[in-house]
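Step 1: inspect the first sequence and its tokens.
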Amino acid sequence: MENIQLISTKPEKWEYFKKNLSVSYEFINSKPGEAVDFSEIAIIAVDEIENIGKIPDAEKKRLPIVFFGNSDDFSTEIKVRKLGAVDFFYTPFDKELLMLRFKHISKMSDLSKFKTDNLRWMHTVKREMVNFQEGMAEVIAQTVESRDEYTGGHVIRTATFIGLLGEEFVEKEVLTKEQLNLIVRAAPLHDIGKIGIRDSILLKPGQLTESERIEMMQHTEKGANLIRKIQKRFASHIYLQYAYDIALNHHERFDGKGYPNGKKGKDIPFCARLMSVVDVYDALVSDRVYRKGIPKEKAFEIIFGGSGTQFDPTVLKAFDNCKDYLI
């Protein structure tokens, strides 16, 4: 049996309902403003317009509200429907018609709840799928990195560093917080193209030959092509566009002497200009198969020496502001 919560200053007015409709519904009286447990309620009924405003907003969204007026007053009906009432009744009313409309309201309410629950479930599944897909992309990036024992943690550190650097531009309103979050999510994929580079080159302890160096440089385009393929499968993942821009362009130089396309200045995507700095910094201070990492102070000296040539001066100014937080 469904419960109908009757909110009224005149409880005696509802005796007719209790007497004639108790077969299908149980009526519960309360005064406006009284604490009410709505968890077992199917319908809320009121007889004064101001009482609608006293119903908690959460319950207005969850439960159907019906209004009982004293007459067939069209203007009152408009008002109460604007306030959220799903149906309007006036006295005297036909008992059979009232029952039919109550049953219809209950069915519509159940359908609405089903749709809401179903939509919530679908959002949850979608969110979990997005997390899984993005997690798989990061696992691929870490798998590529694991081929070289000396680069362990590089993808995580650079993502952390680019987040710190990007915060400087969020404060200046160059980036939005959402854009920075997308860039940070994209950052671990910057070297994913190295999956296509031979171990004999990737793990070589000595200096690369010219042909080997050219093959190593191809990791930018290989990575971009791989991400483009992923984009076709997961077009809704906005962060993949940032991942593409970073993978392709993070070895471009501000003076146009980088690779693979010799882009210059602001023709290089901003996210790639950020990655360029943090990528070089982490490479300098970390041990590599062919050399030991250098002290932070020496790395800062090298990086700031590349202002306007290898790196964007604006990015380096922001880097200077946050460099003390870098490991």
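Step 2: inspect the second sequence and its tokens, then contrast the two.
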Amino acid sequence: MRSRYGVCPLCGRECPLTFHHLTPRKLHRRKAFRRRYSRETLNEGIHICRDCHDGIHDFYDEKTLAKRFADIRSLQADPALARHFRWVARKKVRGRADR
């Protein structure tokens, strides 16, 4: 599992981060995606906090994420997600207490 501690680029909180594939892994094995994108492109992603990560997957299904939100700018520009990220920014950080 690829995780680290740092500043979430979506909500701005300093906290444990998780790796978010910009093209969901569930779609990597589909022929259309394998033909259209290289292995490197399919494995691109960003480190974000768990609260932002959960929100992204709660708002949109995998196909929508792959087609409309394959970069950080599109995630930040979406009004529903932006509202969620602002809400998360006000939350207390949960996670490792040693940081």
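Step 3: confirm your contrast with the notes below.
The radius of gyration is 14 Å. The first helix runs from residue 31 to 36.
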